[in-house]
Amino acid sequence: MFKTLIPVALISALAIGNAHSQTTDFLIPEDAENYSYNFRDHEVHCMAMNMYWEARNQPVRGMIAVGLVTMNRVADNRYPETVCGVVTQGPTRPSWKNPEVRYPVRNRCQFSWYCDGKSDKVPKVDMDIYDIARAFAYKIYYGHGTAMVEDITHGATHYHADYVTPAWAETKKRVLKIGRHIFYKWIN
Known about the structure:
CATH architecture: Orthogonal Bundle
CATH superfamily: Cell wall hydrolase SleB, domain 1
Strand content: 5-15%
CATH topology: Arc Repressor Mutant, subunit A
Number of domains: 1
Number of strands: 7
Shape: globular
Oligomer: single chain
Distance between the termini: 36 Å
Structural class: alpha+beta
Number of helices: 5
């Protein structure tokens, strides 16, 4: 298997396409200076973080569904072509200190945890939950679109908590509910 090694300094820029840095502490491991970082491992990490923050209080099946939605978006040309690009997608604004540095617009990202203004570091008490998310993220990332991973979401690219009703839900087809999340796919 061919591995692309990327210098740590480029990881954030490659993942999100700009110099955004406010909430990207999750993008680079704490000891990253000590080794070259594999791009695919980085993608798995972004997906695991998305699964953890979006569904850590949901059944494991719900966490898996969030990972599948992420990969379904990667496969759809309406979204970025990398996992990290999908996870960090959303409008940005320039820093007031340095207009060349961009930050996500609070509460306007595709995945709410990414731009909620809170720390994205997984609490030590939840590392076992993150480890579960990472194990499933690995399998989903490397097996998506193959017989190894069944898409239980039936191609869903959207979901929301059952206690909200976003306007976009009327334009999508509901495909299933897992825990507190309702999943949708494009009608066409």
